[in-house]
Amino acid sequence: MKRKLFCVVALLSAALCAASATRAQDSFQFGVIGHSFAGSPDDSVLRKALDESDADNLAFVVVNGIKSASEPCSDALYSARRDLLKEAENGVIVSLAASDWVGCRNRNGSIAIERLNRMRDLFFPDEFSFGASKVPLFRQSVTPKFRSYTENARWEFGGVLFATVNIPAANNHFVQDGGRNSEFEDRLIANKDWLQRLFTFAAQKKLEGIVLFADGNPLAQPSQRPFLLRGQRDGFAEMRQRIVTLANGFRGKVLLVHGENLKSESNTGIVWRRNLGSIGVASGWSKFSVDSGNAALFTLVHSTGKTAMQAPPTAQ
After folding, report:
1. Per-residue tens of pLDDT for the chain, all 316 residues
2. SS (H, E, C) 288-315
């Protein structure tokens, strides 16, 4: 009798532990570090943001970009930033920014593509994040057709799918000069396929939400981009249409976290249009809460920097 009672207690205990673990994942927090390095002569600001986020109990941290546009595109700087990210306590996932590679040049002209490929070698070497808490990642590069796109990665936590998408803020790296857009066109095909696979995966698993991390904000309209002159091509048009269409067909919440700062004013939180939300993290680091008991699912808890001004996502 005692043995049976012990077994019942043990089974109840195990069930309670399992339920507790499930509840713990129903509510969790993650961090996003914006362009913390901008205006800094060294990595001190980025290091401070990593230290502060390490002191918090976070599921993971996404870093949008590893250098400012004014810093050199050297292997030495890339390697130093990579080593800094390796020291983090939290799992750290890199989301590429335009400042990392789009403007890189030498005396002979643009070296953007060469630097992009170099970053892929240094920052996306395997299927795990940086940091002590390794986050297992699934990369788009496992698909033979898109084996170059190691920067596009997804991971799942607490019933939510998270993913990085290489959409640089500099008009999605669309070059106005004719005949020079092979990188843009190839990446556009890869990103469309990646987004489709993300939403299909999330729908099949009946996940509650999707969070996309990108440098540029494809949901913003051309009128919000002062650098786009009349008649110039909007490099974000296809990405905007694809995200809006896929979000409309998804039962859960979709959040776009980007690093583009279109206006000087700051926004106080996530801007929603139906199930599609967006928020810019332009500098510092921000903490987000995920709570399945909250109708919005995602909430901005606090931010140490300015968040970019948002425009409500607009269907095409």
Report:
1. 434 443 333 333 433 343 333 344 679 999 999 876 666 667 888 999 999 999 998 999 999 999 998 899 999 999 999 999 999 999 999 999 999 999 999 999 999 999 999 999 999 999 999 999 999 999 999 999 999 999 999 999 999 999 999 999 989 999 877 667 899 999 999 999 999 999 999 999 999 999 999 999 999 988 777 666 666 789 999 999 999 999 999 999 999 999 987 653 345 689 999 999 999 987 789 999 999 999 999 999 987 765 444 444 544 3
2. EEEECCCCCCEEEEEECCCEECCCCCCC
Report phi then psi at 207, rounded to 5: -75, 155
Residue written as token pair 């929603």? 272
Q: Is 10 helix (H, G, I), strand (E, B) or coil?
A: helix
Closest CA to 137 of 146, 150, 128: 128
Tell me if 298 sits within 8 A of 270, measured CB to CB: yes
Alpha carbon 14 to chain centroid, angstroms? 36
DSSP string, 117-184: HHHHHHH-SSSB-BSSSPPB-EEGGGSGGGTT-TT-EEEEETTEEEEE----TTGGG--SSTT--HHH
* pTM, full prediction: 0.87
Tokens in use for 261?
A: 């700062």
Give the type of residue at 262. L
